[in-house]
Amino acid sequence: MPKDPLAVLGELAARSWARRVLLTVFLAAATIHAYAVAFVRPARWDDFDVHREVGRRFLSGDYLYANGLCYPYMPMGAMYFSPLALMERSIGLTVRYMVAIACLVLTLSLLHRMVRARVESVRPYGLTLGAVAGLLALRYLINDLDDGGPHLILLAVLTGGIFAVWRGREVLGAVCFGLAVALKVSPALFVPFFLWKRQWRLAGCTVVAAACWIVLPVVWMGPGSWWKHQVEWTEVAAGSFVGRQTAYSTTNEQQVRNSALSPALSRYLVTYPEEHPLRRNDPGYVPILNLEPQTAKGIVAVAVLGLLGMLAWSTGRPYRGPGDPAWVRECAGVLILAMLLSPVAWVQHLVWLIPALYVILADMLAQGEVRWPAWVMLGGYVIITQVLNYEFLGKRMGEAVLSYRPFTIGMLLVFGLLMIRAGDAAGMWSPPGQLPASAPQSRSEEVARL
């Protein structure tokens, strides 16, 4: 029987000369790209410039949300970005790029430590798994690093929280999760996940930590200014969450590149009128269905509940404590849902797929013989998200493909692969005798014991 491709790559990467070549190529590519982004590419108004501007407003005491520019960020976000305003643009972009690369390496290292603790056979293949996971997320990495890698930095914070809890350091983990919530809100999905896993202390500490991080800018802004900004941000964010559109949320969310679940499904379910921005600005728009808006919203709600139900079903057993072999897999699934259920998910946000891709690859490597449906799903993901791009299709055809939300489909494929392989990997990830015989393995067994 032919060897698994991942195993072949792993054996090659285990050789010292191959490791040196791979690391040299990685460092050279990162250096060239960083230099091009910071010093060669013509300056343009990107997310990095928005971050610098909101940081400048924070330091100078200006109104943060003037001209509707910085609504995505709480005052805590403005405080977090404020150091960028103290540096010249190219220098600040270079510094953040270097931090993001270090955070990517840290993320992959922590993922490997969690994986290898329960799958001894993947221990020598850390470099291979990291390299292949990076290739499968290359398009997202490049997009994020074009702005200095802010989502890679946040991914490292979240992975650090996942790792800290896995090591039994719940308070440190809660501090990390709380910071992520204060900066981007969507990781708040971890709080109900912790409650579902009966981790009451972790959930409570995360809420307290998030509240402390959110209030921290009071030290600089003063109570009155902070409260005014926080209330305004909350009104806009809450309106977006419940579907009450404002001028800002309409402009921000109704874009072809938004890969969040709700707008992606609506694209297939509803025929937009001629003047709608998602039709007017979409060169590839072709109506699929023409359902009533309320019917479409109901279908979207059912889809959301279905995804949440799939995660709940897959993660239903109690948390086993420090070293739980399923912890990293389950948290990777939460990260995917955090992107799908957010009002907005841009391509650069999808670097949060890296933990799921890493776990899937580790499973495939450890299992040895992988069934064909897994290869089909993974192959479909690669074609849809990595191959069908502007370079391969050309700008016009590439924009037409974006109309059908390929990145949403890619996220769903990875989520499905992660969930359906959970059962296959259960025995492989849990050595015999790992748990006491009296420990309940699932919710049904726990209820039966009662």
Using the CA coordinates, give the radius of gyration: 22 Å
Quote the average pLDDT: 88
The helix-strand sequence is: HHHHHHHHHHHHHHHHHHHHHHHH
Largest sheet: none
Kindly give the count of domains: 1
Q: Work out the helix count.
A: 24
CA-based shape: globular
Number of E-type strands? 0
Structural class call reads mainly alpha
The stretches of 5 or more residues where confidence is low (pLDDT under 50) are 427-450
Q: What share of residues are in beta strands?
A: under 5%
Helix proportion range: 55-70%
Keywords:
mainly alpha, 450 residues, globular, 0% strand, disordered C terminus
Task: Characterize the structure shown.
This protein is mainly α and 450 residues long. Helices cover 69% and strands 0% of the residues. It has helices at residues 5-13, 16-40, 47-60, 75-81, 89-116, 126-136, 138-145, 150-166, 170-184, 190-196, 200-215, 218-221, 223-241, 247-253, 261-269, 277-280, 293-314, 327-340, 354-367, 372-387, 390-393, 395-402, 406-429, 443-449.
